[in-house]
Structure formats: structure tokens, C-alpha cells
Design a protein that fits this description.
Keywords: Signal. With 328 residues, this protein is α/β, with parallel strands linked by helices. The chain folds into two domains: 32-125 and 252-323, D-Maltodextrin-Binding Protein, domain 2 (3-Layer(aba) Sandwich); 127-225, D-Maltodextrin-Binding Protein, domain 2. Helix content is 45%, strand content 19%. Helix 2 (45-61) packs across helix 8, helix 2 (45-61) crosses helix 9 (264-277) and helix 4 packs across helix 11 (302-323). It is built from eleven helices and ten strands. Bound molecules: aspartic acid.
């Protein structure tokens, strides 16, 4: 082969090498353990969903998916960690509705809360419950509202920081009853629930994935579910409409993310594994016990997830701006 032709071939090979590395790496994906970051404390509702999803995805992918908790600042600490991680599919984020509120609530973040991520798929939407310490002096939502109005800021409302679902639910409750309470932030609602169980805080609004078992065991008082219909997992708990607060409705969606720049072939592979995981009988039955169901398969895709997330950012923006409540 003439020397110029060989040089041209070598140059061409050098040029195409990085291009080839992408698809090849994606084909071999995953070749090692994947880390799924939960931006809240272990044992809480987001963590519970993540551990079930991670286990089922791991079975499908043939690799372990390890859950790591990085709680604090309403979920933004864990989200930052994933936005800044290497975009190779080995570091993922399982987050909730906070991904739709943080872009407006937090005006100064050390990461891009929208463009820092690739979407993998939606996971589930979880109803919320308003619960109180066992000896709270009320038994119905109407009685609880009367106590809240009477005791006002003497009552402590626990949450997982600004932008967390428990924070939004508390804001909605306070708006519905036109009364402010003192809020106490935790790194997640698992520690908040511990404080409620020991009676050091008074009230908490949290996903059924963190409250169903304590409600059934009679360890906390429950006043309402924040959904239009009663839940099969908690059939005796009235809806907020039945309890006289029809505007007090909220459900918490969860989604799976990868850092921006993760190859599309990798996010597609992760999305397929997520879709399989969400049909896993063990996951489905545990979700049902905890008052929730996985999303339909077509919503567990990067496109459906991104569309839903963008719409939810647009939905929350004017609400947060009108309230003028920012985290910084
Ligand atoms: N449920 C929490 C929240 O308030 C978060 C968590 O601990 O999973 O958003």
C-alpha cells in the first residue's frame, strides 16, 4: 500500500476511534455495578421506591444496582452529585416532584437543574397522607384543622427541606386552612417519621410509601389521603374532599435520571430495564401494599418522562412565583 494511502487510513482510523467507542461501550453496558443516588435519607419513601426498582433493574441488567443516599437541601445535594457525575450510565438519580420545583425554588444552584440531566423514564405516582403523632388531639381532618387554627405556630410540621414533597404538601395544607405552622426540616422523611413516632414533632404529610405501615400499626394518627378517591391499601382513610378540604390534593411522581451527555443507547437500555422492573411481580405487589402502582410502560421512557417533567416545571413556576417563597 502506498505510504500516503496508509497514512490516510491511519488518520481515518484515529478519527473514527472515539466515535466507535460510544456505541461499543453502550453495547457492553452495563459492565459493572451501577449506583442509584437517592437524594433523601435511607428508609424514606423515595428510598423505598428506589430500592425496589434498583433490585428489579439489577436482575434485568445482570449487574448490581446499589442505592446510595445523599440527602439534604430538599434533594438538591443528591441531584448535584448526579449532574456532575461522569455521563456513562453508571451513576443515576431516582428523584421525585422536587425535580419540577427546584428549578424555580432554588435560584442559585451549583448545577443545572434542567439541562444537567438525561431522562430515563417515569417510575410511579404516589399519593400522600396527612399524619400526626399518636396523641395529637384530633381524630378527623376537620378536628385537625380546628387544632391547627387554634394552636398555629405552636405546632411543628416536619418536612424534608424546601422543594421536598412534604414541604409542598405542607404549604398546600397551610394555604387550604389559611394558617402557618412552624416547619422543621430533615434530610428526608424517614428521620421526620422517627421524630413523629417519638412525639417530638406534631404533623407530617408524606407519601404512602412511608406512612402506610405506621398507619396500619396504629403508630400514627391519619387524617386524610390527598387523592380524589380512597386507596385500596388504606380503605378506611377518608379523602381530603370527604374531610372538607377539596383543594388539598397532591401526588408525588418519581423519575429516573442520568447525567447530561449519557449516550442515548445507554439511556435506552436503562429505560428498557426500568420497564421490565416495573412489571416485576415482587415490585408490583410491594408497591400495592404501599398504596401505589408503577406507571404504564409507555411512560417509563426518556421522551415521556422529559415531556411530563417539563410540563410540571411549567405548572409549578407560577405557583412558586406567586407565593414568592424561594429557598435562597
Ligand atoms: N418524602 C420526602 C419528601 O418530602 C422525601 C423522602 O424522604 O423520600 O419529599
Amino acid at each position: 500500500m502506498p505510504r500516503f494511502a496508509r497514512r490516510a487510513l491511519l488518520a481515518l482510523a484515529a478519527l473514527s476511534a472515539p466515535l466507535a467507542a460510544g456505541p461499543a461501550a453502550a453495547q457492553q453496558f452495563p459492565g459493572r455495578t451501577i449506583t442509584m443516588i437517592v437524594p433523601f435519607a435511607a428508609g424514606g419513601p423515595t428510598d423505598t421506591v428506589a430500592r425496589l426498582v434498583a433490585e428489579a433493574m439489577g436482575r434485568e441488567l445482570g449487574q448490581t444496582v446499589v442505592v446510595e443516599n445523599a440527602g439534604g437541601a430538599g434533594g438538591t445535594i443528591g441531584a448535584q452529585r448526579v449532574a456532575n457525575a461522569r455521563p456513562d450510565g453508571y451513576t443515576l438519580l431516582l428523584h421525585h416532584i422536587g425535580m419540577a420545583t427546584a428549578p424555580t425554588l432554588y435560584r442559585r444552584l451549583a448545577y443545572d437543574p434542567v439541562n444537567g440531566f438525561e431522562t430515563v423514564g417515569l417510575v410511579t405516582e404516589v399519593p400522600m397522607t396527612l399524619v400526626a403523632r399518636k396523641d395529637f388531639p384530633a381524630n378527623t381532618l376537620q378536628e385537625a384543622v380546628a387544632v391547627i387554627r387554634r394552636e398555629k405556630d405552636k405546632l411543628n410540621y416536619a418536612n424534608a427541606g424546601i422543594g421536598a414533597a412534604s414541604h409542598l404538601c405542607g404549604l398546600l395544607l397551610m394555604k387550604s386552612v389559611d394558617t402557618a405552622m412552624t416547619t422543621v426540616p430533615f434530610r428526608g422523611t424517614a428521620p421526620a417519621m422517627q421524630e413523629l413516632l417519638s412525639g417530638r414533632v406534631d404533623l407530617l404529610c408524606d407519601q404512602t410509601t412511608n406512612t402506610t405501615e405506621q398507619i396500619k400499626a396504629g403508630e400514627v394518627k391519619v387524617f386524610t389521603v390527598t387523592t380524589p378517591e380512597r386507596l385500596a391499601a388504606l380503605p378506611d382513610v377518608p379523602t381530603s374532599t370527604e374531610g372538607g378540604l377539596p383543594d388539598f390534593q397532591v401526588s408525588v411522581w418519581h423519575g429516573l435520571y442520568a447525567p447530561k451527555g449519557t449516550p442515548a443507547a445507554v439511556t435506552q437500555r436503562l429505560s428498557q430495564a426500568l420497564q421490565v422492573a416495573l412489571r416485576d411481580p415482587r415490585l408490583v405487589s410491594r408497591f400495592a401494599e404501599l398504596g401505589t402502582t408503577p406507571v404504564a410502560q409507555e411512560r417509563a421512557t426518556p421522551e415521556a418522562h422529559r415531556q411530563f417533567w417539563m410540563a410540571d416545571i411549567a405548572k409549578w413556576k407560577p405557583i412558586i412565583q406567586a407565593a414568592g417563597q424561594y429557598a435562597d
